[in-house]
Amino acid sequence: MKFVDEFRDAELGRAVAAEILAAVEPGRHYKLMEVCGGHTHSIYKYGIDDLLPANVELVHGPGCPVCVIPMGRVDDGIALAHEPGVIFTCFGDMLRVPGSAGTLLDAKAAGADVRMVYSPLDALRIAKANPGRQVVFFAIGFETTAPSTALTLKRAKAEGVTNFSCMCNHVTIVPPLRALLDSPDLRLDGFVGPGHVSTVVGARPFEFIPAEYGKPIVVAGFEPLDVLQAVHMLLRQLSEGRCEVENQYSRVVPYEGNLRALEVMAEVFALRPHFEWRGLGFISQSGLRLSDAYADFDAELRYGVPGVRVADPKACQCGEVLKGVIKPWECKVFGTACRPERPIGTCMVSSEGACAAYYNYGRFARERELV
Amino acid sequence: MDAVSDREQRVLDIIETARSKRAKFRDERITMAHGAGGKATQALIEGLLVPAFASPALDGLADAGIVRVGELGLALTTDSFVVRPLRFPGGSIGDLAVNGTVNDLSVAGARPLVLSLSLILEEGLPAETLRAEVAAIAAAARAAGVEVITGDTKVVERGHADELYICTTGIGVLDERASLSPAAPRPGDRILLSGRVGDHGTAIMLARGEFELDAEVASDTRSLWPAVDALLDAAGPSLRCLRDATRGGVASVLNELARAADVAMLVREADVPVDPAVAGAAEILGIDPLHIANEGTLVAVVAPEAADAALAALRAAGGRGDFAQAAEIGTCHGAPGGMVLLETAFGGKRVMDMLVGDPLPRIC
User: Fold this and answer.
1) Do B12 and A363 touch (CB under 8 A)?
2) What is the residue-wise DSSP string for B189-218?
3) Which of A80, A206, B16, B182 is most deeply buried (CB count within 10 A of its CB)?
4) pLDDT digits 0-9 by tens, A51-63
5) Interface contact flag, B341 A340, Cβ < 8 Å
């Protein structure tokens, strides 16, 4: 595949890996957080951590939109799915996320009309094809996916589609990062910045990380060479005593972001005063709701959801995993009560969740060479 | 990464133990995941079905059961077909109904002989559709050298089935050259693949038109007997085992074998043949081609001394180039037992697990 294979070149990968090895100070341990679940996925998919020196550790951050949805919101979604006449639509990963009493997949098996879609426009299309039914779209994601939800709602409004509504769970990236950085138990040397989010918001919103917290950040793409290069750029900053926002993903990310997308988001969404994150608790101004101009399309207003806050399961330490305080295997229920087939916490649900990734791929520690 | 600490090692061991245990079936309802060929399917089969029937023949969890009648070894297998849409590039439900059952017999080392055919028809199904599928069944049976010798038809009310479901049962005669067992692979053995991966599943996904992707990908549905015949000729008793890489894809099949034989398998991603169109579609949808279903691709484990001859024979099998893309994709190792590792094309190594649930595309 052109424009893809170039970024997966094994020889170049070895060259960057060698430069990384040369850039690390022996005896120093580096903890770098990749903020975005997409990076976590790439790191495991390509075996990138297998190519890093032993003292460079990648910590998986809170940037997997499925992983941060709290149980109460899943329960609300399931309640909507069971409303008579409703076709409930959501992305596939969301189907397996446990609420307090089962998943959307279980709700589907129990008779709710739950359908997996690949884009919010698919949900709108279903609404137009089923004028006698109500179609609810369960919207999740950071600034990456929020513009497509916004555009879909704009289209629904322009076309006067009345049987379509949206349960908005969109979140923003900066508040959780700030919450993480404020966390006293956090020990990180730098961040691999979220490339997809940055295509929308740009790299500028991350300037507070070096400025206020003294940590370097490199916004990175998702191909294996992108990730390796970002790690190298972070190590270079650290060894040269620099601390700034760098943009490794400049082929896609404009420093100022995508103004058109930001405009559409500003029109369709408004900030919630606070939003609950799995494991991280309530974070101020971190979630989006539909703006007053789009209140007619707000499923939470149209139906009135239970809105009961469900505490995270006591044993579940998703929050500490998301904060990078503990590794997945250090969680009390990891691999025993909580497994990919039967997840307790959301980190085990999405293939991009830190725990699922470690469960599926991390068991092969490099010390256990093939015999 | 630091050396694995004791505590991490204990957690890793717990995961290993959990993986090696027979799966339990504890779900309250059947979900679509139980049909996807991955871990939920495994739990359904190993946790509910196998214990209920307690037949030693079931323990191998093979694609076909073996029954001996005097000197004669027979393989019996059955399969249901519910594919949607009924027709897709490269084939149709009729082709699958014949080839799927023929292939389950073939990879058990049995020459396919006869089939039964059971049709479940939805009220209102156009006769034209049925005629076309019956013709497809007849043609596929001819091509595979099997006879349909008995059958049944049922009609259900509109809405109680989706157009047409087909069940076929097949009997084959165990080939004398074959001594296959999923527990047979040994360290040093080579892993062969009979063709490209991911064609069938991708063709179906594209035919459903849900993705607005245009690509020319055709199902690989075909009889695998010519490939098995050639492998048995070339490798004989050095052929350890065969699997048809259907639901769950090559990754799931290799995990089953690694577990059954308690060997480690290392697959070299760069050596796995994938059609560029399939790779592109999988990339966009966030699916690994090694997790996508095939309907005419097998995995063979061969002793090292016979591997080259087996691969050459496989590539020439059938004489029509059906298996020309066959490749050696990996090797078996002694430890870590039960684990399948992938050496990625980028150079890193990682675990390649069975499919969990349906292959869901990533969302960010």
Assistant:
1) yes
2) -EEEE-S-SSHHHHHHHHHTTSS-------
3) A206
4) 899 899 888 887 7
5) no
